[in-house]
Here is the input.
Amino acid sequence: MKTFLIACVAAVVLAIVGSVLLNSIQEPVDKAFTTSGVRLGT
Here is the structure.
């Protein structure tokens, strides 16, 4: 039972760390896909 609880806590911690890491890496669409020849929005 102790091993199962440790695994559950580890899964939650990894999910939180992954979420924070991915949110810091991602760019907004207007920055990620904008080049000199592209106009987004008005």
Summary: DSSP finds two helices and no strands in the chain. The two ends are 58 Å apart (CA to CA).
